[in-house]
Structures are given as structure tokens and as C-alpha cells.
Write a structure and sequence with these properties.
This protein is an all-alpha fold. It has helices at 3-38, 43-55, 59-72, 77-89, 93-106, 111-123, 127-140, 146-159, 163-176, 181-193, 197-210, 215-227, 231-244, 249-261, 265-278. 81% of the residues lie in helices and 0% in strands.
Length: 279
Amino acid sequence: MDNLERLQQLGAQALIATEVRVLAQDIDHRATDRAIALDPAYGAAFNNRGNAYASLQDYETAFQSFRKATALLSSTAAPYNGRGRAHIEKDRYYAAVRDLGRSIKLDPKLAAAYRNRATANYALGNFAAAADDATKALELEPEQDKSKLLMLRARANAGLNRFREGVADFDRVLDIEPEKVDAFMERGALLAKNRRHAAAIRDFDKVLELEPKNPKAFALRGETKLSDRKPDQGYIDANIALIIKPDYPLALRVRGDIFRAQKRTENAIADYQRAASLD
């Protein structure tokens, strides 16, 4: 079997697996629909139906099912966790935090509720609360969504400029996923913010090794070189970013900063104005 045939076979297997999974989810929600028809006060069936519709990414229907489940199972944590997750998928983060708080109050050891609340708190900019929730979730279930939670906590710590904690979490993410571009990029940004220029540039270099045409990496490396008093080198990187992605606001702002450092005021103003018009 040649490589093309093997790839085609793998693609067909993946398609079959996806179809089987969707079919199973469809069967799940049909089964819960039948259970509810037989007993409209069966709260667990509404909760299970919510989970089934969430798996199908029908989050509004899932939300309605979880809402009914919370009315019938008001002292049970799971439906509030499910409804909180549905709120997150619909970008209703304040409501998510409220529901997930209720879930945690009912069951302080429900790791999923902490994971979901960490996501909602991070989206709201509540970085300290997000980091705390991620830590609690990792304590309760150390291997569940480990890389995702460490990445969220790293970003939260970076948002708080907790340098050591943020770098340590990015390091742990990269131990698990050695080629995770976002982790290199964001660790580089945190290192640069704390004037660890050489280490930051190494991270941006790694991003460009993995993705040679990543304009953000060029722009941030250019910004770091400017901060390291190497504006001419930074200028080259900013221009490369703009060749890859013309009218890229970040690169325009970085180049504007470089022009200002070089006392090329008119050029700096032009880049700042162009960036502002694109934001």
C-alpha cells in the first residue's frame, strides 16, 4: 500500500469514527427525550439530554435542558455545571460564573465546575480567580485537560505579571506539548515584558522555526529588539511582518515605535494613524 492509499484509508476511518460518534450522540438525546416523555419530572433525564445536546454543539437546546434540570434537581451540582458550560459557549460569562459557583457550593470536589469557571473568569479578565480555579481543578483531577489548564493558568499569571509563575506554567505546557506555538509565543512576550530579551528572542525564533511565516512572531521579536536597544534589527523584523501581513496593526505600532526611537517622527505618526484606523 503506497502513502496515498494509506492516507485515504486513514481519512475514511476518521470519517467513519466521526459519523459513529455523532450517531451515538443522536441516540443519546433521543433516549433522554423518550425518558422525559414517560416522566416529565425526571430531572436526571433533562441533565443527560443537556449533555447530549452539548456534545452536538447545540448549546441553546442544551441550556434549556439544563435549566429544567436545575429546577428539578436544585440541590444537585451537575446541572448547574452543565448550564454554566452552556453559558460559556454562548459567551455569557457572568451567568456562567454564577451557575458554576452554585455547582461548586453544592459539590466542592466537582473538578469540572472549577475547570469551567476558570475559563469564564479568564474571559472576564478575573485573572487571579481564573488561576485559583485552574489550580483547584488540577488538584482534584491532575491529568484531566492538564495542558489546557496549565496554559490558561500561565496566561492568567502573565495577565497579572506574575513572572515566575507564568514562565513555570508555560514550561510545563511545553514539556507536554513541545511544539505548541502559542506557549512559545506567550512565554516570549512575558519574558520580553520583564526584559529577558535574549530568552524572549529564543522563543520567537522557535515560533518562526515552527511557523516561518508567522507575522506576530516577527512583530514581537522586532519589538523585543527595540527594547534591547537594537532598533535597526527590530525594523527589519517589523517590515517582514508587514510583508507577510500588510496593514497588520501590531507590526505598524512596533514600526512606529522604532521610527520614534530613530527620531523619524512623521513616519512614526503615519504608522500609528494607520494602525489606529485598522483596529
